[in-house]
């Protein structure tokens, strides 16, 4: 299994260069999401990795986090509320507040990506 650090990915929806403050936020965001990923790997059967997308021109409203499980069966059994709570807590630890965390977190599976996109996550996320 790969470490959480290797699988906590980030994606930028930005054809523009990031400002210095955006880079600081991104680094802090990556750090706390990696921590959330490590927790999820221990607590949630079948959890594999997570990634995030953000457009810093519309932050934090644009923040989108995707939690990936191995199979659809494991995803169906996942405690999504607990995982959302962990991520929300980590975001709050760096003063990132969102009104409704469920609007910012979605769930998917390796199984879905393999079946629908031949395992090509970059295509699935486009």
- Overall spatial form: globular
Structural class: alpha/beta
Strand content: 15-25%
Distance between the termini: 26 Å
Please trace the helix and strand order, writing H or E for each element: HEHEEHHEHH
- Summed over residues and divided by their number, the pLDDT gives a mean of 89
**Fraction of residues in H or I helices:** 40-55%
**Strand ordering within the main sheet:** 1-2-3-4
Report on the biggest sheet: 4 strands, mixed
What count of domains describes the coordinates?
1
Sequence stretches where pLDDT stays below 50 over 5 or more residues: 1-14
The Cα radius of gyration reads 14 Å
Instruction: Quickly count the helices.
Output: 6
User: Number of DSSP strands?
Assistant: 4
Describe this structure in words.
This protein has about 130 residues and is of the alpha/beta class. It has one domain. About 45% of the residues lie in helices and about 20% in strands. The protein is built from six helices and four strands. The protein has helices spanning about 5, 20-45, 70-75, 80-90, 110-115, 120-125; strands at about 10, 45-55, 65-70, 105-110. It has a four-stranded mixed beta sheet. Strand 1 (about 10), helix 2 (about 20-45) and strand 2 form a beta-alpha-beta unit.
Task: Please supply descriptive tags for the structure shown above.
disordered N terminus, 6 helices, alpha/beta, single chain, 126 residues
